[in-house]
């Protein structure tokens, strides 16, 4: 019996499709050609220019602040919401489920515009706060759904066992519930972080003076600016991502 | 337990980093500029900050329409915005702009009168022109023999369809209208029908209608002739010396991004100072050179480098300029162009 080559071929094709564009981007970040029309020689110019581009660093700073705060808040709210939705199934929770589910399917442009009109109506100054509130609004739903999935096959007898053994409610949550739910919570948090870090449409509308985030900035640069700076910035972000993933894998490997 | 701790630590580290970066805010006046990316020379911003003691914060938008939707909905706090002229007219009609105080803008005396003759706000009541660009034809000198500066160039079938026109209904239908000797803001149905037939004829010689890729395509030689924006062409010329630009003799479209001060601005005096600063001849010249567009400031022209001044992509020939027009927002008549464009796109 010969083994099928289809899985190998598919894997290679997927990896090529995924990493080849990234590779082109990294190569072009060292390309002296401004329009990446062809190879015009090796240069570090784009990195030098990036270093001096204070608006880009300001935008990156805004993005990180928003993503960190929005992820933290939406993870806490999303997890508790999932818990409530799973534990109770009365009418109120059905409505709750509907309301949590809706942001997943609402077109972004509609959400962005309505949030902007709302903030303007209540005279709330636009800025990082409004971006964070908006990001929590949509990413919370994703966290809830992810944690809810983890709860589907949760064995509640473990909670009862812990309480039988004399643990109070808080200890049970801390020592039994949360560790068991952790993979779901972590996945939800990562999802929230990713969504927040690259959201453009909603952010564009609810951003105020001085709170331009990286995606908003990059969209404007594509239309009107220096694309190679984006290549250089993306390459740096990739390096950070790879190093983080590598480090976390090493850390996990150590404790395994 | 160990897992949660691992998940929390990076989050805390990130939060600490964010706080460290967020620190340092001094009580000083802040000017909020809402503009396109890389649209003001960074050194000039530093100089303005040094001269006034104010801090300049720049936010960016990527389309006039998105910016308009936001300001119209009530987003406040921007002191200077740089929309395109047609959008300035719309914003002004909607009452979103402040009248400008000319007493605070002495450098307005430098604004090019030739441009003002075709400008939408020639008295500079609510806007000051910032950067001027025009469309035209760019081509590879070695690949396009006997080039004539006319829209008729798109009738040439000998270029092997390595030709693009802009994927912009107003620009491309406008080119055909100019070719026929009509205004590119016409609402006359017969003129539009004739223009439609011209574009459909041209389409047979085109690779595609293209707004972005034509720049790298021309630089790499994939395309030999393109319909494009002069500012983009100036940037590509830096990469390929074979590229030449021509403004068709029948006239072309001129577009300008203008400074405006919205009604909701907080630092009105500082906004005026900023506009005046960028119309100082020396600063205007430095900015034009940085962006590759032209700041219509007559006193700055002699300060520009010679090769920049002699580049037809930057300076329109006066005879061509006189025949050129600014694309206007046609309100309800815009639909005529949409319909014509749909017919062009559907044609074989």
Describe the fold and architecture:
The complex is a heterodimer of chains A (256) and B (348). By secondary structure, chain A is mainly α. Chain A has a domain at 58-225: MetI-like (MetI-like fold, Orthogonal Bundle). Chain A is 79% helix and 0% strand. In chain A, helix 3 crosses helix 10. Chain B is an alpha/beta fold. Chain B folds into two domains: 26-130 and 255-309, Periplasmic binding protein-like II (D-Maltodextrin-Binding Protein, domain 2, 3-Layer(aba) Sandwich), CATH 3.40.190; 133-254 and 316-346, Periplasmic binding protein-like II (D-Maltodextrin-Binding Protein, domain 2). In chain B, 41% of the residues lie in helices and 14% in strands. Chain B is built from 14 helices and ten strands. In chain B, the strands form two sheets. In chain B, strands 4, 5, 6, 7, 8, 9 and 10 form a seven-stranded mixed beta sheet that branches. Chain B has a three-stranded parallel beta sheet with strand order 2-1-3. In chain B, helix 2 (42-52) links the parallel strand 1 and strand 2 (55-60). The longest helix of chain B is centred in the first third of the chain and has 21 residues, at 2-22. Chain B is globular and about 65 Å long. Mean pLDDT of chain B is 88; it is low at 1-6 and 14-25. At the A-B interface, helix 3, helix 5, helix 8, helix 10 and helix 11 of A face helix 1, strand 1, strand 2, helix 3 and helix 8 of B.
Order of helices and strands of chain A: HHHHHHHHHHH
CATH homologous group name of one domain in chain A: MetI-like
Output mean pLDDT of chain B: 88
Strand content of chain A: under 5%
Order of helices and strands of chain B: HEHEHEHHEEHHEHEHEEHHHHEH
Largest interface, C-beta closer than 8 angstroms, per-chain residues: A-B, 56 and 48 residues
Largest sheet of chain B: 7 strands, mixed
Terminal CA distance of chain B: 66 Å
Q: List the total number of helices of chain A.
A: 11
Which descriptor suits the 3D outline of chain B?
Answer: globular
Q: Write down the CATH topology of the largest domain in chain B.
A: D-Maltodextrin-Binding Protein, domain 2
Q: What is the correct CATH architecture of the largest domain in chain B?
A: 3-Layer(aba) Sandwich
In CATH, the topology of one domain in chain A is named MetI-like fold
Helix content of chain A: over 70%
Q: Give the overall form of chain A.
A: globular
> What proportion of the residues of chain B form beta strands (DSSP E)?
5-15%
């Amino acid at each position: 019996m010969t083994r099928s080559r289809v899985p190998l071929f598919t894997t290679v094709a997927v990896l090529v499709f995924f990493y080849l564009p990234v590779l082109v981007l990294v190569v072009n970040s060292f390309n002296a050609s401004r329009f990446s029309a062809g190879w015009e020689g090796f240069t570090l110019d784009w990195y030098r220019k990036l270093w001096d581009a204070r608006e880009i660093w300001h935008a990156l700073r805004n993005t990180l602040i928003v993503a960190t705060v929005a992820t933290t808040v939406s993870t806490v709210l999303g997890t508790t919401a999932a818990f409530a939705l799973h534990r109770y199934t009365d009418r109120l929770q059905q409505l709750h489920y509907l309301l949590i589910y809706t942001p997943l399917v609402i077109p972004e442009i509609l959400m962005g515009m309505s949030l902007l009109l709302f903030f303007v109506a209540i005279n709330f100054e636009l800025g990082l706060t409004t971006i964070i509130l908006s990001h929590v609004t949509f990413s919370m739903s994703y966290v809830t759904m992810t944690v809810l999935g983890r709860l589907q096959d949760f064995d509640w007898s473990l909670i009862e066992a812990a309480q039988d053994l004399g643990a109070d409610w808080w200890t049970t949550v801390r020592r039994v519930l949360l560790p068991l739910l952790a993979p779901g919570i972590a996945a939800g948090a990562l999802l929230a972080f990713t969504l927040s870090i690259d959201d453009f449409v909603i952010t564009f509308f609810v951003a105020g003076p001085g709170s331009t985030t990286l995606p908003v900035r990059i969209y404007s640069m594509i239309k009107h600016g220096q694309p190679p700076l984006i290549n250089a910035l993306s390459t740096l972000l990739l390096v950070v991502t790879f190093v983080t993933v590598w480090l976390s894998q090493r850390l996990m490997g150590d404790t395994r | 337990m160990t897992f949660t701790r691992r998940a929390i630590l990076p989050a805390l580290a990130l939060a600490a980093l964010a706080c460290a970066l967020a620190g340092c805010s001094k009580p000083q006046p802040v000017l909020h500029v809402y503009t396109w990316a890389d649209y003001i020379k960074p050194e000039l911003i530093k100089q303005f900050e040094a001269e006034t003691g104010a801090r300049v914060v720049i936010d960016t938008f990527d389309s006039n329409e998105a910016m308009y939707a936001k300001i119209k909905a009530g987003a406040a706090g921007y002191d200077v915005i740089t929309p395109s002229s047609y959008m300035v007219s719309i914003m002004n009609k909607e009452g979103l702009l402040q009248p400008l105080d000319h007493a605070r803008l002495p450098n307005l005396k430098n604004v090019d009168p030739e441009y003002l003759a075709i400008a939408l706000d020639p008295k500079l009541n609510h806007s000051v022109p910032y950067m001027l660009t025009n469309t035209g034809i760019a081509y590879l000198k070695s690949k396009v023999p006997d080039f004539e500066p006319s829209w008729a160039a798109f009738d040439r079938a000998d270029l092997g369809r390595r030709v693009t026109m802009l994927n912009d209904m107003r620009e491309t239908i406008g080119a055909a209208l100019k070719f026929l000797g009509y205004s590119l803001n016409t609402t006359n149905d017969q003129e539009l029908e004739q223009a439609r037939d011209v574009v459909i004829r041209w389409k047979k010689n085109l690779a595609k209608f293209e707004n972005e890729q034509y720049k790298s395509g021309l630089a790499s030689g994939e395309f030999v002739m393109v319909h494009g924006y002069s500012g983009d062409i100036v940037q590509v010329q830096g990469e390929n010396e074979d590229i030449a630009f021509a403004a068709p003799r029948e006239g072309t479209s001129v577009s300008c991004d203008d400074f405006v001060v919205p009604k909701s601005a907080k630092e009105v005096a500082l906004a005026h100072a900023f506009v005046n600063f960028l119309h100082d001849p020396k600063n205007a010249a430095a900015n034009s050179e940085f962006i590759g567009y032209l700041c219509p400031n007559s006193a700055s022209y002699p300060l520009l480098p010679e090769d920049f001044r002699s580049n037809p992509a930057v300076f329109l020939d006066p005879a061509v300029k006189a025949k050129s027009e600014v694309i206007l927002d046609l309100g309800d008549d815009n639909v005529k162009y949409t319909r014509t464009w749909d017919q062009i796109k559907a044609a074989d």
